Amino acid sequence: MTSANPYRLPEVVQPFSKAYQGRRAFASASRPPLTTRYVPFARSMATYSGTRLRTDVVAGVTVAALALPSSMAYAELAGVPVSAGLYALLLPVLAYAFLGSAPRVVVGPEGTVALLVATALAPLAAAGSPEYAALSAMLAILVGAVFLLARLARVGWIADYFSQAVLVGYITGVAIVLILGQLGKLLGISSDADGAIREAVDVLTHLGDANGITVVVGVLSIALLVVAGRLNKRFPGALVLVVLGIAVSWTLDLASRGVSVTGEVPSGLPSLEVPDVSASDLATLAAAAVAVFLVAFSDSILTSRSFAARHHETVDANQELLAFGVVQLASGVSQGIPVGTSGSRTAVNDDMGATSQVSGLASAGMIAAILLFLTGPIQYLPSAVLGAVIVYAGAKLIDPAKWRALARSSTVEVVIAAITVACVVMVGVLQAIIVAVVLSVADIIRRAARPADAVLGWSPEDDRYVDVVDHADARVTPGVVVYRIQDRLFFANAHFFKRRLWAAVDGAPKPVHHVVLDASFISDIDASAEVALREVLDGLHERNIELHLARATVELLDRLAAVDLTDAIGTDHFHGTVTAAVDACTPATGTTVA
Protein backbone atom coordinates (compact mmCIF):
# COMPACT_ATOMS: atom_id res chain seq x y z
CA MET A 1 0.00 0.00 0.00
CA THR A 2 1.29 3.42 -0.89
CA SER A 3 0.47 6.31 1.39
CA ALA A 4 1.04 10.03 1.14
CA ASN A 5 3.40 11.57 3.66
CA PRO A 6 1.20 12.74 6.54
CA TYR A 7 3.95 15.04 7.82
CA ARG A 8 4.81 16.72 4.52
CA LEU A 9 4.24 20.49 4.61
CA PRO A 10 2.58 22.29 1.72
CA GLU A 11 5.04 23.83 -0.70
CA VAL A 12 3.84 27.36 0.02
CA VAL A 13 2.54 28.58 3.36
CA GLN A 14 1.35 32.18 3.38
CA PRO A 15 1.55 34.56 5.01
CA PHE A 16 4.87 34.05 6.80
CA SER A 17 5.18 35.60 10.26
CA LYS A 18 8.24 37.43 11.57
CA ALA A 19 6.86 37.69 15.07
CA TYR A 20 9.68 35.58 16.54
CA GLN A 21 13.02 37.32 16.51
CA GLY A 22 16.13 35.92 18.19
CA ARG A 23 15.19 34.48 21.58
CA ARG A 24 11.63 35.82 21.71
CA ALA A 25 9.86 32.52 20.96
CA PHE A 26 9.06 32.03 24.64
CA ALA A 27 8.91 35.68 25.66
CA SER A 28 5.72 37.53 26.42
CA ALA A 29 4.43 39.61 23.52
CA SER A 30 4.25 42.61 25.84
CA ARG A 31 6.70 43.01 28.71
CA PRO A 32 4.82 43.70 31.96
CA PRO A 33 5.94 46.71 34.01
CA LEU A 34 8.49 46.27 36.79
CA THR A 35 5.80 46.82 39.41
CA THR A 36 3.79 43.73 38.49
CA ARG A 37 6.88 41.65 37.69
CA TYR A 38 8.53 42.09 41.09
CA VAL A 39 5.51 42.98 43.24
CA PRO A 40 2.95 40.21 42.67
CA PHE A 41 0.59 41.94 45.10
CA ALA A 42 0.05 44.75 42.57
CA ARG A 43 -0.95 42.20 39.93
CA SER A 44 -3.41 40.48 42.24
CA MET A 45 -5.13 43.79 42.99
CA ALA A 46 -6.11 44.32 39.35
CA THR A 47 -9.27 42.20 39.72
CA TYR A 48 -9.91 42.65 43.44
CA SER A 49 -13.47 42.97 44.80
CA GLY A 50 -15.30 43.88 47.98
CA THR A 51 -16.41 40.29 48.52
CA ARG A 52 -12.81 39.08 48.45
CA LEU A 53 -11.83 41.87 50.84
CA ARG A 54 -14.28 40.71 53.49
CA THR A 55 -13.13 37.10 53.15
CA ASP A 56 -9.45 38.02 53.28
CA VAL A 57 -9.84 40.29 56.30
CA VAL A 58 -11.66 37.59 58.27
CA ALA A 59 -8.98 35.05 57.32
CA GLY A 60 -6.20 37.47 58.28
CA VAL A 61 -7.75 38.27 61.65
CA THR A 62 -8.16 34.56 62.38
CA VAL A 63 -4.55 33.84 61.44
CA ALA A 64 -3.40 36.71 63.65
CA ALA A 65 -5.28 35.25 66.62
CA LEU A 66 -3.48 31.94 66.09
CA ALA A 67 -0.11 33.47 65.28
CA LEU A 68 0.20 35.47 68.49
CA PRO A 69 0.46 32.60 71.00
CA SER A 70 2.25 30.21 68.65
CA SER A 71 4.89 32.80 67.77
CA MET A 72 5.49 33.36 71.46
CA ALA A 73 6.04 29.61 71.87
CA TYR A 74 8.46 29.47 68.91
CA ALA A 75 10.36 32.44 70.33
CA GLU A 76 10.82 30.54 73.57
CA LEU A 77 11.98 27.52 71.57
CA ALA A 78 14.54 29.69 69.79
CA GLY A 79 15.75 31.04 73.15
CA VAL A 80 14.79 34.68 72.55
CA PRO A 81 12.30 36.88 74.44
CA VAL A 82 8.70 36.30 73.36
CA SER A 83 8.60 39.85 72.05
CA ALA A 84 11.03 38.84 69.28
CA GLY A 85 8.53 36.27 68.06
CA LEU A 86 5.73 38.85 68.06
CA TYR A 87 7.83 41.42 66.19
CA ALA A 88 8.43 38.81 63.48
CA LEU A 89 4.69 38.96 62.73
CA LEU A 90 4.80 42.58 61.60
CA LEU A 91 7.28 43.81 58.97
CA PRO A 92 8.13 40.31 57.66
CA VAL A 93 4.45 39.58 57.02
CA LEU A 94 4.04 42.94 55.26
CA ALA A 95 7.12 42.29 53.11
CA TYR A 96 5.85 38.90 51.99
CA ALA A 97 2.38 40.28 51.32
CA PHE A 98 3.83 42.60 48.67
CA LEU A 99 6.59 40.42 47.23
CA GLY A 100 5.48 36.80 47.71
CA SER A 101 4.13 34.87 44.72
CA ALA A 102 1.94 32.55 46.81
CA PRO A 103 -1.38 34.29 47.62
CA ARG A 104 -2.24 32.24 50.71
CA VAL A 105 1.10 31.46 52.32
CA VAL A 106 1.61 32.74 55.87
CA VAL A 107 5.12 33.56 57.07
CA GLY A 108 6.37 34.02 60.59
CA PRO A 109 8.17 32.18 63.40
CA GLU A 110 8.21 28.46 62.68
CA GLY A 111 9.23 25.43 64.72
CA THR A 112 12.00 23.96 62.56
CA VAL A 113 13.67 27.32 61.94
CA ALA A 114 13.37 28.22 65.64
CA LEU A 115 15.10 24.97 66.57
CA LEU A 116 17.95 25.71 64.14
CA VAL A 117 18.31 29.17 65.65
CA ALA A 118 18.59 27.72 69.14
CA THR A 119 21.19 25.17 68.00
CA ALA A 120 23.30 27.80 66.22
CA LEU A 121 23.25 30.43 68.98
CA ALA A 122 23.58 28.23 72.08
CA PRO A 123 27.42 28.20 71.98
CA LEU A 124 27.62 31.98 71.46
CA ALA A 125 25.48 33.52 74.23
CA ALA A 126 23.09 32.74 77.06
CA ALA A 127 19.52 32.18 75.92
CA GLY A 128 17.28 35.12 76.73
CA SER A 129 20.13 37.60 77.10
CA PRO A 130 20.34 40.85 75.09
CA GLU A 131 23.43 39.47 73.31
CA TYR A 132 21.49 36.37 72.32
CA ALA A 133 18.61 38.47 70.94
CA ALA A 134 21.08 40.59 68.94
CA LEU A 135 22.69 37.46 67.48
CA SER A 136 19.27 36.13 66.52
CA ALA A 137 18.36 39.35 64.74
CA MET A 138 21.71 39.40 62.92
CA LEU A 139 21.21 35.78 61.91
CA ALA A 140 17.92 36.80 60.30
CA ILE A 141 19.75 39.51 58.34
CA LEU A 142 22.40 37.03 57.18
CA VAL A 143 19.72 34.54 56.14
CA GLY A 144 18.12 37.34 54.13
CA ALA A 145 21.46 38.03 52.45
CA VAL A 146 21.78 34.35 51.47
CA PHE A 147 18.28 34.43 49.98
CA LEU A 148 19.11 37.54 47.94
CA LEU A 149 22.39 36.04 46.71
CA ALA A 150 20.48 32.92 45.69
CA ARG A 151 18.03 35.14 43.81
CA LEU A 152 20.87 36.88 41.96
CA ALA A 153 22.24 33.46 41.02
CA ARG A 154 18.73 32.39 39.93
CA VAL A 155 18.93 29.06 41.73
CA GLY A 156 15.16 28.74 41.93
CA TRP A 157 15.47 25.82 39.52
CA ILE A 158 16.48 23.70 42.53
CA ALA A 159 12.80 23.70 43.49
CA ASP A 160 12.01 21.80 40.28
CA TYR A 161 13.54 18.70 41.88
CA PHE A 162 10.68 18.63 44.38
CA SER A 163 8.44 16.21 42.51
CA GLN A 164 4.72 15.75 43.07
CA ALA A 165 5.53 12.70 45.17
CA VAL A 166 7.79 14.84 47.37
CA LEU A 167 5.12 17.53 47.64
CA VAL A 168 2.38 15.07 48.64
CA GLY A 169 4.62 13.22 51.07
CA TYR A 170 6.01 16.38 52.61
CA ILE A 171 2.67 18.06 53.25
CA THR A 172 1.24 14.81 54.65
CA GLY A 173 4.23 14.45 56.96
CA VAL A 174 3.89 18.05 58.11
CA ALA A 175 0.20 17.46 58.81
CA ILE A 176 1.02 14.42 60.95
CA VAL A 177 3.70 16.34 62.85
CA LEU A 178 1.27 19.21 63.44
CA ILE A 179 -1.42 16.87 64.78
CA LEU A 180 0.94 14.89 66.99
CA GLY A 181 2.42 18.10 68.35
CA GLN A 182 -0.97 19.27 69.64
CA LEU A 183 -1.84 16.15 71.66
CA GLY A 184 -0.28 17.59 74.80
CA LYS A 185 -2.27 20.82 74.46
CA LEU A 186 -5.53 18.94 73.92
CA LEU A 187 -4.95 16.71 76.95
CA GLY A 188 -3.29 19.21 79.26
CA ILE A 189 -0.09 17.16 79.43
CA SER A 190 3.33 18.73 78.96
CA SER A 191 6.26 16.84 77.47
CA ASP A 192 9.97 17.58 77.13
CA ALA A 193 10.56 14.79 74.59
CA ASP A 194 12.24 15.65 71.30
CA GLY A 195 10.50 14.83 68.02
CA ALA A 196 6.87 14.38 67.15
CA ILE A 197 6.82 10.61 67.70
CA ARG A 198 8.63 10.69 71.04
CA GLU A 199 6.49 13.58 72.24
CA ALA A 200 3.26 11.80 71.27
CA VAL A 201 4.39 8.57 72.94
CA ASP A 202 5.38 10.47 76.07
CA VAL A 203 1.99 12.19 76.21
CA LEU A 204 0.06 8.96 75.67
CA THR A 205 2.02 7.14 78.37
CA HIS A 206 0.94 9.83 80.83
CA LEU A 207 -2.76 9.85 80.01
CA GLY A 208 -3.48 9.53 83.70
CA ASP A 209 -2.16 13.07 84.15
CA ALA A 210 -4.63 14.55 81.67
CA ASN A 211 -6.67 17.54 82.82
CA GLY A 212 -10.36 16.72 82.42
CA ILE A 213 -11.47 20.30 81.74
CA THR A 214 -8.74 20.72 79.14
CA VAL A 215 -9.91 17.55 77.39
CA VAL A 216 -13.48 18.86 77.34
CA VAL A 217 -12.34 22.20 75.93
CA GLY A 218 -10.31 20.45 73.23
CA VAL A 219 -13.08 18.04 72.23
CA LEU A 220 -15.73 20.76 72.12
CA SER A 221 -13.41 23.00 70.11
CA ILE A 222 -12.76 20.33 67.47
CA ALA A 223 -16.48 19.53 67.36
CA LEU A 224 -17.35 23.19 66.80
CA LEU A 225 -14.85 23.45 63.97
CA VAL A 226 -16.13 20.28 62.29
CA VAL A 227 -19.77 21.37 62.53
CA ALA A 228 -18.96 24.88 61.29
CA GLY A 229 -17.04 23.42 58.36
CA ARG A 230 -19.88 21.09 57.43
CA LEU A 231 -22.50 23.86 57.58
CA ASN A 232 -20.58 26.55 55.70
CA LYS A 233 -16.95 26.40 54.59
CA ARG A 234 -16.78 30.20 54.56
CA PHE A 235 -17.94 30.54 58.16
CA PRO A 236 -15.04 31.85 60.29
CA GLY A 237 -15.24 28.97 62.74
CA ALA A 238 -11.65 29.33 63.96
CA LEU A 239 -12.06 33.04 64.70
CA VAL A 240 -15.37 32.48 66.52
CA LEU A 241 -13.77 29.66 68.48
CA VAL A 242 -10.84 31.86 69.57
CA VAL A 243 -13.20 34.61 70.74
CA LEU A 244 -15.43 32.11 72.56
CA GLY A 245 -12.39 30.46 74.10
CA ILE A 246 -11.12 33.75 75.51
CA ALA A 247 -14.58 34.70 76.80
CA VAL A 248 -15.26 31.33 78.47
CA SER A 249 -11.75 31.13 79.90
CA TRP A 250 -12.06 34.60 81.45
CA THR A 251 -15.62 34.03 82.71
CA LEU A 252 -14.95 30.64 84.30
CA ASP A 253 -11.34 31.38 85.27
CA LEU A 254 -10.17 28.19 83.57
CA ALA A 255 -6.55 28.93 84.43
CA SER A 256 -7.34 28.35 88.11
CA ARG A 257 -8.76 24.94 87.16
CA GLY A 258 -5.50 23.73 85.65
CA VAL A 259 -6.21 24.72 82.05
CA SER A 260 -3.12 26.05 80.28
CA VAL A 261 -3.59 29.55 78.82
CA THR A 262 -1.41 31.85 76.74
CA GLY A 263 -0.39 34.11 79.62
CA GLU A 264 0.77 37.71 79.70
CA VAL A 265 1.70 39.27 76.37
CA PRO A 266 4.12 42.24 76.20
CA SER A 267 2.75 45.34 74.48
CA GLY A 268 4.32 47.91 72.12
CA LEU A 269 5.91 47.98 68.64
CA PRO A 270 9.58 47.34 67.80
CA SER A 271 12.16 49.96 66.90
CA LEU A 272 14.24 49.61 63.72
CA GLU A 273 17.96 49.04 64.16
CA VAL A 274 20.84 46.89 62.93
CA PRO A 275 22.07 44.63 65.75
CA ASP A 276 25.63 45.13 66.99
CA VAL A 277 27.54 41.86 66.55
CA SER A 278 31.30 41.19 66.55
CA ALA A 279 33.12 40.11 63.38
CA SER A 280 34.01 36.71 64.88
CA ASP A 281 30.36 36.02 65.65
CA LEU A 282 29.43 37.03 62.10
CA ALA A 283 31.73 34.35 60.70
CA THR A 284 30.13 31.74 62.95
CA LEU A 285 26.61 32.86 62.02
CA ALA A 286 27.34 32.62 58.29
CA ALA A 287 27.28 28.82 58.26
CA ALA A 288 24.11 28.79 60.35
CA ALA A 289 22.53 31.24 57.90
CA VAL A 290 23.08 28.81 55.02
CA ALA A 291 21.45 25.99 57.01
CA VAL A 292 18.45 28.16 57.89
CA PHE A 293 18.20 29.22 54.23
CA LEU A 294 18.06 25.60 53.04
CA VAL A 295 15.32 24.69 55.51
CA ALA A 296 13.29 27.88 55.09
CA PHE A 297 13.42 27.83 51.29
CA SER A 298 12.65 24.13 50.97
CA ASP A 299 9.79 24.38 53.44
CA SER A 300 8.46 27.51 51.74
CA ILE A 301 8.50 26.17 48.20
CA LEU A 302 7.03 22.80 49.19
CA THR A 303 4.24 24.36 51.23
CA SER A 304 3.44 27.14 48.75
CA ARG A 305 3.35 24.80 45.75
CA SER A 306 1.16 22.33 47.60
CA PHE A 307 -1.43 24.99 48.37
CA ALA A 308 -1.09 26.67 44.96
CA ALA A 309 -1.89 23.35 43.27
CA ARG A 310 -5.24 23.29 45.05
CA HIS A 311 -6.23 26.50 43.28
CA HIS A 312 -4.54 25.81 39.91
CA GLU A 313 -1.96 28.53 40.54
CA THR A 314 1.80 28.66 40.03
CA VAL A 315 4.59 29.74 42.37
CA ASP A 316 7.70 31.50 41.03
CA ALA A 317 10.67 30.02 42.93
CA ASN A 318 12.99 32.92 42.04
CA GLN A 319 10.39 35.43 43.20
CA GLU A 320 10.11 33.49 46.45
CA LEU A 321 13.86 33.86 46.92
CA LEU A 322 13.52 37.63 46.53
CA ALA A 323 10.50 37.78 48.82
CA PHE A 324 12.09 35.76 51.59
CA GLY A 325 15.31 37.72 51.32
CA VAL A 326 13.44 40.92 52.09
CA VAL A 327 11.30 39.12 54.70
CA GLN A 328 14.34 37.95 56.66
CA LEU A 329 15.98 41.37 56.46
CA ALA A 330 12.78 42.99 57.71
CA SER A 331 12.67 40.59 60.65
CA GLY A 332 16.30 41.26 61.56
CA VAL A 333 16.13 45.05 61.56
CA SER A 334 12.88 44.96 63.59
CA GLN A 335 14.45 42.82 66.35
CA GLY A 336 12.72 39.65 65.21
CA ILE A 337 14.03 36.17 64.51
CA PRO A 338 14.58 34.19 61.28
CA VAL A 339 11.19 33.17 59.96
CA GLY A 340 9.77 30.48 57.72
CA THR A 341 6.49 29.36 56.23
CA SER A 342 3.89 28.27 58.76
CA GLY A 343 2.15 25.15 57.50
CA SER A 344 -0.52 25.28 60.20
CA ARG A 345 -1.41 28.95 59.75
CA THR A 346 -1.28 28.63 55.97
CA ALA A 347 -3.73 25.75 56.29
CA VAL A 348 -6.04 27.89 58.44
CA ASN A 349 -5.70 30.82 56.03
CA ASP A 350 -6.61 28.60 53.09
CA ASP A 351 -9.43 26.94 55.00
CA MET A 352 -10.89 30.37 55.77
CA GLY A 353 -11.07 31.07 52.04
CA ALA A 354 -8.27 33.64 51.73
CA THR A 355 -7.79 34.73 48.12
CA SER A 356 -4.77 37.05 48.28
CA GLN A 357 -2.08 38.50 50.51
CA VAL A 358 -4.61 41.08 51.71
CA SER A 359 -5.12 38.51 54.45
CA GLY A 360 -1.43 39.00 55.31
CA LEU A 361 -1.92 42.75 55.54
CA ALA A 362 -4.97 42.23 57.74
CA SER A 363 -3.03 39.80 59.92
CA ALA A 364 -0.13 42.22 60.40
CA GLY A 365 -2.56 45.04 61.15
CA MET A 366 -4.36 42.91 63.69
CA ILE A 367 -1.09 41.93 65.39
CA ALA A 368 -0.07 45.59 65.59
CA ALA A 369 -3.44 46.52 67.12
CA ILE A 370 -3.20 43.66 69.61
CA LEU A 371 0.34 44.65 70.61
CA LEU A 372 -0.79 48.22 71.17
CA PHE A 373 -4.22 47.81 72.73
CA LEU A 374 -5.41 44.20 73.22
CA THR A 375 -2.66 42.21 74.87
CA GLY A 376 -4.86 41.78 77.96
CA PRO A 377 -7.61 39.49 76.56
CA ILE A 378 -5.17 37.23 74.65
CA GLN A 379 -3.65 36.02 77.91
CA TYR A 380 -6.86 34.07 78.64
CA LEU A 381 -6.82 32.04 75.40
CA PRO A 382 -6.72 28.31 76.32
CA SER A 383 -3.89 26.38 74.68
CA ALA A 384 -6.37 23.60 73.92
CA VAL A 385 -8.34 25.94 71.65
CA LEU A 386 -5.20 26.77 69.71
CA GLY A 387 -4.35 23.07 69.50
CA ALA A 388 -7.84 22.22 68.22
CA VAL A 389 -7.59 24.78 65.41
CA ILE A 390 -4.19 23.46 64.35
CA VAL A 391 -5.35 19.82 64.47
CA TYR A 392 -8.42 20.61 62.37
CA ALA A 393 -6.37 22.52 59.80
CA GLY A 394 -3.64 19.85 59.78
CA ALA A 395 -6.12 17.03 59.17
CA LYS A 396 -7.40 18.82 56.09
CA LEU A 397 -3.87 18.88 54.65
CA ILE A 398 -3.95 15.11 54.18
CA ASP A 399 -5.47 14.59 50.73
CA PRO A 400 -6.31 10.93 49.93
CA ALA A 401 -7.14 11.90 46.33
CA LYS A 402 -3.54 12.94 45.70
CA TRP A 403 -2.28 9.63 47.07
CA ARG A 404 -4.67 7.77 44.77
CA ALA A 405 -3.40 9.84 41.84
CA LEU A 406 0.18 8.89 42.71
CA ALA A 407 -0.81 5.23 42.89
CA ARG A 408 -2.38 5.43 39.43
CA SER A 409 0.77 7.08 38.08
CA SER A 410 3.55 4.98 39.57
CA THR A 411 4.23 2.70 42.51
CA VAL A 412 7.69 4.23 42.75
CA GLU A 413 6.17 7.67 43.36
CA VAL A 414 4.03 6.29 46.17
CA VAL A 415 7.17 4.82 47.75
CA ILE A 416 8.98 8.19 47.46
CA ALA A 417 6.01 9.96 49.04
CA ALA A 418 5.79 7.41 51.86
CA ILE A 419 9.51 7.67 52.61
CA THR A 420 9.18 11.46 52.65
CA VAL A 421 6.35 11.20 55.19
CA ALA A 422 8.36 8.87 57.39
CA CYS A 423 11.43 11.11 57.28
CA VAL A 424 9.47 14.28 58.08
CA VAL A 425 7.81 12.61 61.06
CA MET A 426 10.72 10.61 62.45
CA VAL A 427 13.89 12.43 61.36
CA GLY A 428 13.20 16.08 60.59
CA VAL A 429 12.35 18.49 57.81
CA LEU A 430 15.85 19.17 56.43
CA GLN A 431 16.83 15.51 56.43
CA ALA A 432 13.49 14.57 54.88
CA ILE A 433 13.90 17.10 52.08
CA ILE A 434 17.41 15.86 51.31
CA VAL A 435 16.31 12.22 51.26
CA ALA A 436 13.25 13.03 49.13
CA VAL A 437 15.25 15.01 46.57
CA VAL A 438 17.86 12.24 46.35
CA LEU A 439 15.06 9.73 45.75
CA SER A 440 13.49 11.97 43.10
CA VAL A 441 16.82 12.34 41.30
CA ALA A 442 17.32 8.57 41.50
CA ASP A 443 13.87 8.12 39.96
CA ILE A 444 14.81 10.55 37.18
CA ILE A 445 17.93 8.51 36.45
CA ARG A 446 15.90 5.28 36.55
CA ARG A 447 13.41 6.66 34.04
CA ALA A 448 16.16 8.06 31.83
CA ALA A 449 17.99 4.74 31.85
CA ARG A 450 14.87 2.94 30.57
CA PRO A 451 12.99 5.46 28.40
CA ALA A 452 9.86 4.61 26.46
CA ASP A 453 10.55 3.11 23.04
CA ALA A 454 8.64 1.32 20.31
CA VAL A 455 8.76 -0.51 17.02
CA LEU A 456 6.58 1.45 14.62
CA GLY A 457 4.19 0.36 11.90
CA TRP A 458 1.81 2.16 9.55
CA SER A 459 -1.77 2.51 10.83
CA PRO A 460 -4.33 3.06 8.06
CA GLU A 461 -6.88 4.02 10.69
CA ASP A 462 -4.69 6.73 12.27
CA ASP A 463 -2.93 7.58 8.98
CA ARG A 464 0.48 7.64 10.68
CA TYR A 465 3.22 5.46 12.11
CA VAL A 466 2.29 4.05 15.53
CA ASP A 467 3.51 1.57 18.14
CA VAL A 468 2.80 -1.90 16.80
CA VAL A 469 2.12 -3.19 20.32
CA ASP A 470 -0.70 -0.72 20.97
CA HIS A 471 -2.33 -0.77 17.52
CA ALA A 472 -3.59 -4.05 16.11
CA ASP A 473 -3.98 -2.56 12.62
CA ALA A 474 -0.35 -1.42 12.40
CA ARG A 475 1.50 -2.87 9.40
CA VAL A 476 5.24 -3.15 8.92
CA THR A 477 7.20 -2.82 5.70
CA PRO A 478 9.00 -6.08 4.81
CA GLY A 479 12.73 -5.72 5.26
CA VAL A 480 12.41 -2.46 7.25
CA VAL A 481 12.47 -2.01 11.03
CA VAL A 482 11.28 1.37 12.30
CA TYR A 483 12.49 1.99 15.85
CA ARG A 484 11.82 5.00 18.10
CA ILE A 485 13.37 5.88 21.47
CA GLN A 486 11.67 8.69 23.37
CA ASP A 487 14.53 10.48 25.12
CA ARG A 488 17.90 12.03 24.51
CA LEU A 489 20.74 9.52 24.22
CA PHE A 490 23.37 9.73 26.95
CA PHE A 491 25.47 7.52 29.17
CA ALA A 492 22.54 6.31 31.31
CA ASN A 493 20.54 4.84 28.43
CA ALA A 494 23.18 4.18 25.75
CA HIS A 495 23.36 0.43 26.52
CA PHE A 496 19.56 0.25 26.78
CA PHE A 497 19.33 1.82 23.30
CA LYS A 498 21.72 -0.73 21.78
CA ARG A 499 20.04 -3.67 23.48
CA ARG A 500 16.53 -2.65 22.43
CA LEU A 501 17.45 -1.80 18.84
CA TRP A 502 19.10 -5.19 18.35
CA ALA A 503 16.08 -6.86 19.97
CA ALA A 504 13.83 -5.05 17.47
CA VAL A 505 15.99 -6.24 14.57
CA ASP A 506 16.10 -9.83 15.85
CA GLY A 507 12.36 -9.86 16.45
CA ALA A 508 11.40 -8.55 13.00
CA PRO A 509 10.32 -10.71 10.05
CA LYS A 510 13.41 -11.73 8.11
CA PRO A 511 15.29 -10.66 6.15
CA VAL A 512 15.98 -7.13 7.47
CA HIS A 513 17.75 -4.76 5.07
CA HIS A 514 17.02 -1.36 6.63
CA VAL A 515 16.64 0.15 10.10
CA VAL A 516 14.88 3.50 10.36
CA LEU A 517 15.60 5.33 13.62
CA ASP A 518 12.85 7.83 14.43
CA ALA A 519 15.04 10.48 16.09
CA SER A 520 12.32 13.03 16.81
CA PHE A 521 12.79 12.66 20.58
CA ILE A 522 16.60 12.59 20.52
CA SER A 523 17.59 16.17 21.26
CA ASP A 524 21.27 15.45 21.88
CA ILE A 525 23.91 12.76 22.35
CA ASP A 526 26.92 12.62 24.64
CA ALA A 527 30.22 10.75 24.23
CA SER A 528 28.76 7.45 25.46
CA ALA A 529 25.83 7.71 23.06
CA GLU A 530 28.23 8.54 20.21
CA VAL A 531 30.15 5.33 20.90
CA ALA A 532 26.87 3.39 21.08
CA LEU A 533 25.75 4.77 17.69
CA ARG A 534 29.05 3.84 16.10
CA GLU A 535 28.79 0.31 17.51
CA VAL A 536 25.24 0.00 16.18
CA LEU A 537 26.32 1.34 12.78
CA ASP A 538 29.23 -1.10 12.58
CA GLY A 539 27.03 -4.01 13.66
CA LEU A 540 24.42 -3.15 11.04
CA HIS A 541 27.07 -2.94 8.32
CA GLU A 542 28.33 -6.39 9.28
CA ARG A 543 24.78 -7.70 8.69
CA ASN A 544 24.41 -5.72 5.46
CA ILE A 545 21.72 -3.54 7.05
CA GLU A 546 21.49 0.17 6.32
CA LEU A 547 20.70 2.76 8.99
CA HIS A 548 18.40 5.69 8.19
CA LEU A 549 17.49 8.57 10.50
CA ALA A 550 14.09 10.26 10.35
CA ARG A 551 12.91 13.53 11.90
CA ALA A 552 16.29 14.39 13.43
CA THR A 553 16.29 17.71 15.27
CA VAL A 554 18.60 20.55 14.27
CA GLU A 555 20.50 20.10 17.55
CA LEU A 556 21.04 16.40 16.83
CA LEU A 557 22.13 17.06 13.24
CA ASP A 558 24.69 19.59 14.46
CA ARG A 559 26.01 17.18 17.05
CA LEU A 560 26.27 14.28 14.59
CA ALA A 561 28.16 16.50 12.17
CA ALA A 562 30.53 17.65 14.92
CA VAL A 563 31.55 14.06 15.71
CA ASP A 564 31.71 12.95 12.04
CA LEU A 565 28.74 10.62 12.31
CA THR A 566 26.83 12.33 9.50
CA ASP A 567 29.21 11.03 6.83
CA ALA A 568 29.44 7.64 8.54
CA ILE A 569 25.67 7.24 8.35
CA GLY A 570 25.44 8.83 4.90
CA THR A 571 24.05 12.24 4.06
CA ASP A 572 21.38 10.63 1.85
CA HIS A 573 20.18 8.54 4.81
CA PHE A 574 18.64 11.48 6.68
CA HIS A 575 14.94 12.10 6.08
CA GLY A 576 12.37 14.65 7.19
CA THR A 577 9.71 12.09 8.08
CA VAL A 578 9.42 8.40 8.87
CA THR A 579 7.33 7.93 5.73
CA ALA A 580 10.05 9.48 3.59
CA ALA A 581 12.66 7.23 5.19
CA VAL A 582 10.62 4.08 4.58
CA ASP A 583 9.94 5.20 0.97
CA ALA A 584 13.69 5.58 0.48
CA CYS A 585 14.20 2.04 1.78
CA THR A 586 11.73 0.62 -0.77
CA PRO A 587 12.24 2.72 -3.93
CA ALA A 588 10.88 0.12 -6.30
CA THR A 589 7.55 -0.57 -4.65
CA GLY A 590 6.94 2.52 -2.49
CA THR A 591 5.72 2.20 1.10
CA THR A 592 4.41 -1.33 0.86
CA VAL A 593 3.27 -2.69 4.19
CA ALA A 594 2.10 -6.07 5.29
Offer a few descriptive terms.
single chain, Transcription Regulator spoIIAA, 6-stranded mixed beta sheet, two-stranded antiparallel ribbon, 26 helices, 8 strands, elongated
Number of strands: 8
SS class: mainly alpha
Q: What are the low-pLDDT stretches, counting only 5+ consecutive residues below 50?
A: 1-14, 588-592
The spatial strand order of the largest sheet comes to 4-3-5-6-7-8
Q: Please give the oligomerization state of what you see.
A: single chain
Portion of residues in beta strands equals 5-15%
Number of helices, counting only DSSP H or I runs of 4 residues or more? 26
- Domain count, please report it: 2
How would you characterize the largest beta sheet?
6 strands, mixed
N-to-C span: 8 Å
Instruction: Please estimate the helix content.
Output: 55-70%
Q: Report Rg.
A: 31 Å
Shape assignment? elongated
- Mean pLDDT over the full residue set: 84
